[in-house]
């Protein structure tokens, strides 16, 4: 079966699960996200468990009904199989199998049996699948899903309906697929639940094109055994693209995000993309106030950092806690003041940039989404950050993106590339604002980059190629001369076109200019006289 069929069938499964939620009054409910993603994940883990057992045991691989065959295994034989499995794989007891739930769906209190099964899977795999909070508490894999139905008499039927959507489809034949397939599925799975709702800690979703560009520019040479971090991870799109560019088995992921929903999304993303070994490094917590990842008393440093931080956010409630001596080095350029009005417009992204610069390893690289105004601001924290990037030779370049590249915000954005090993200079400044095609997405305008345009940006940047009205390659000295501006447009050559004309043509042009000027002066004088008359009449009255 072709991959397009698997994609459409997987999307159909997601749609059917959403249909069940709608039928039981949970459509667009705040808990629908948890139900859809957790039931989907249970199905995925069940099928992957069977797939991996079949790789270990030929008898299971050749069986038409592996679950029925394995039910006859002794306890010791079954435990030996579990011990041989990959340590990053989910392990299931035989009573956890989907077939067991399906066969027992007519028993009394089926909802409780369903919830108990998922919770037992979560506890059985707690060491590798739980997300930690900043205080060290663990957030387990599954909730008690039936409790989201307020009418207790409908819970059994709700859980039966969910189970019956899972039994007619198998993920088993798609586990050989790689990042592109699962990134498409993940985006479809969360598309209705990752909107910027304008709340205090709204999730920020980075378009796939921007994520791909950031990763492809950061990782322009093969690397291995590296650490990758996103201090405002959201659903993990940036980290997944970065890990894919490096190789999922050649990097370790670290993240922190204050949103519980974002942390759950990222955990799901890691499971789908064979990065389970990094789940233990996902932290739900406040990166700016209480960064979690440390070595001894100091903050951990990373080889690669990607981030699309929130630009504006009210952090006045912990502003005073940031103004301490221990933060002087981390927030070297300062902490934005608390405005008298519109506290929700505090520029928190400036703290994230400083945190990222502080958290880079000796040869670390970073890519950060910033509002385009940052690259030209003539004073304040913005300029101090840019000065340090230049004076410490950490700047690799900037790509100014098309407007509306993010459908949820009208803010023009640029991507700032930092490289602590860029000592020789050769900084690439790119104006990609004229690329892309504008489409309508809901009530918003959105600009889409074609695959060819994405590659144009990547290749031109990585090849340090100067292209007229598109890119310039400049030195640190040139940037100092331009008052530390990172805007490509300020470095483009201004060209004046010269046209050879005869003396007669020149005299004709000058006479035309003179006639036009005389006409303008005459009209101006008449207008002045008319105004005087009107004003005189008003004074007289």
Task: Based on the model shown, name its key terms.
3 domains, 43% helix, alpha/beta, 541 residues, elongated, eleven-stranded mixed β-sheet, Ferritin, Rossmann fold, 15 strands, two-stranded antiparallel ribbon, 19 helices
**What kind of oligomer do you see?**
single chain
Number of strands: 15
- The rounded distance between the terminal residues' Cα atoms is 90 Å
Low-confidence stretches: 196-204
Q: Given the helix and strand composition, which structural class is it?
A: alpha/beta
- Discrete helix count: 19
The CATH class name of the largest domain reads Alpha Beta
| Strands ordered across the widest β-sheet | 2-1-5-4-3-8-9-11-10-12-15
The helix content is: 40-55%
CATH topology of the largest domain: Rossmann fold
Outline type:
elongated
Overall mean pLDDT: 88
CATH architecture of the largest domain: 3-Layer(aba) Sandwich
Radius of gyration: 30 Å
């Amino acid at each position: 079966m072709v991959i397009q069929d698997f994609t459409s069938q997987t999307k159909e499964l997601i749609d059917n699960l959403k249909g069940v939620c709608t039928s039981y009054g949970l459509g667009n409910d705040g808990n629908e996200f948890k139900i859809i993603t957790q039931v989907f994940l249970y199905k995925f883990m069940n099928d992957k468990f069977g797939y991996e057992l079949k790789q270990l045991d030929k008898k299971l691989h050749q069986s038409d009904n592996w679950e029925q065959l394995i039910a006859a295994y002794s306890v010791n034989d079954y435990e030996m199989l579990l011990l041989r499995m990959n340590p990053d794989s989910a392990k299931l007891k035989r009573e956890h199998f989907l077939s067991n739930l399906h066969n027992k769906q007519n028993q009394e209190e089926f909802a409780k049996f369903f919830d108990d099964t998922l919770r037992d899977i979560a506890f059985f795999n707690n060491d590798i699948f739980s997300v930690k909070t900043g205080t060290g508490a663990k957030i387990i894999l599954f909730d008690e899903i039936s409790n989201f139905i307020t009418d207790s008499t409908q819970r059994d039927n709700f859980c039966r309906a969910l189970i019956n959507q899972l039994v007619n489809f198998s993920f088993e034949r798609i586990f050989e697929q790689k990042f592109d397939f699962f990134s498409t599925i993940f985006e479809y799975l969360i598309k209705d639940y990752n909107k910027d709702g304008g709340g205090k800690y709204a999730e920020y979703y980075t378009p796939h094109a921007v994520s791909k560009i950031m990763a492809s520019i950061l990782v322009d040479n093969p690397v291995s055994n590296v650490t990758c971090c996103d201090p405002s991870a959201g659903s993990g799109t940036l980290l997944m693209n970065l890990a894919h560019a490096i190789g999922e088995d050649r990097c370790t992921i670290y993240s922190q995000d204050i949103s519980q929903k974002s942390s759950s999304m990222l955990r799901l993303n890691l499971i789908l993309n064979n990065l389970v070994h990094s789940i233990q490094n996902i932290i739900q917590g406040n990166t700016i106030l209480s960064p979690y990842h440390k070595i001894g008393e100091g903050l951990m440093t990373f080889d690669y950092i990607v981030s699309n931080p929130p630009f504006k956010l009210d952090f006045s409630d912990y502003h005073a806690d940031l103004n301490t001596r221990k933060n002087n080095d981390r927030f070297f350029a300062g902490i934005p003041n608390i405005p008298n009005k519109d506290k929700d417009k505090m520029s928190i992204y400036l703290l994230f940039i400083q945190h990222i610069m502080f958290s880079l390893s000796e040869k670390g690289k970073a890519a950060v989404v910033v509002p385009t105004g940052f690259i030209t601001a003539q004073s304040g924290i913005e300029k101090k950050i840019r000065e340090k990037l230049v004076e410490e030779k950490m700047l690799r370049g900037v790509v100014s993106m098309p407007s509306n590249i993010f459908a949820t915000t009208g803010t023009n954005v640029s991507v700032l590339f930092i490289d602590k090993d860029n000592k020789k200079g050769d900084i690439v400044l790119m104006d990609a604002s004229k690329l892309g095609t504008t489409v309508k997405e809901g009530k918003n305008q959105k600009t889409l980059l074609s695959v060819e345009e994405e590659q144009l940006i990547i290749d031109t940047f990585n090849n340090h190629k100067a292209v007229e009205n598109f890119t310039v390659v400049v030195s640190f000295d040139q940037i100092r001369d331009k008052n530390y501006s990172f805007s490509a447009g300020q470095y483009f050559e201004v060209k004046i076109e010269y046209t050879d004309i005869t003396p007669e043509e020149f005299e004709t042009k000058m006479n035309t200019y003179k006639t036009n000027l005389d006409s303008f002066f005459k009209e101006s004088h008449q207008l002045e006289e008319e105004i005087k008359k009107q004003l005189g009449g008003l004074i007289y009255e």
